[in-house]
Design brief:
Oligomer: single chain
Strand content: under 5%
Number of domains: 2
Order of helices and strands: HHHHHHH
CATH superfamily of the largest domain: Uncharacterised protein YqeY/AIM41, N-terminal domain
CATH class of the largest domain: Mainly Alpha
Largest sheet: none
CATH architecture of the largest domain: Orthogonal Bundle
Number of strands: 0
Structural class: mainly alpha
Number of helices: 7
């Protein structure tokens, strides 16, 4: 699994560089992946690794938003640093145009006609877009396109 190897390499590099924030974030990432493997009782597939990474990114973004509202700049900075480290292991994000093309294709594939069909569309979309696009933004675009 290439992501695990990259994580191990980056963890060693961060330890040698004595970069405490980066090392902490990579250890947290490795721990989350290991916990998921224990939960499933088998090694993770690439798609499952991306799901875990996406969940961690979402948690960091939510935390940054909440800490920002609470004027906790120290915690905002910590979460932002962790977010940057996690995003290094994510695949490149798709452009809005690419995401919209994938959504249009999924809508055509499931023959969705209204917002009631949103679940069917999302079921087809998320395996394709996990880790490559923000799920919340994808959901909003699907809803907008189906509302027309």
């Amino acid at each position: 699994m290439e992501i695990n190897a990259k994580i191990n390499t980056e963890m060693v590099a961060a330890a040698k560089a004595k970069d405490k924030i980066r090392l902490s974030a990579i250890r947290m990432l490795k721990s989350a992946l290991h916990n998921k493997e224990i939960e499933l009782i088998r090694p993770l597939t690439e798609a499952e690794v991306l799901q875990v990474l996406s969940a961690l990114v979402k948690q960091r973004k939510d935390s940054i938003e909440q800490f920002g509202k609470g004027n906790r700049t120290d915690l905002v900075e910590k979460e932002t640093a962790e977010l940057k480290v996690i995003q290094e292991f994510m695949p490149a994000q798709m452009s809005d145009e690419e995401v919209e093309n994938v959504i249009q294709k999924a809508i055509a594939d499931v023959q969705a006609v209204s917002v009631k069909d949103m679940g069917k569309v999302m079921k087809v979309l998320m395996p394709q877009l996990t880790g490559k696009a923000d799920g919340k933004a994808v959901g909003e675009k699907v809803k907008a396109l189906l509302s027309r």
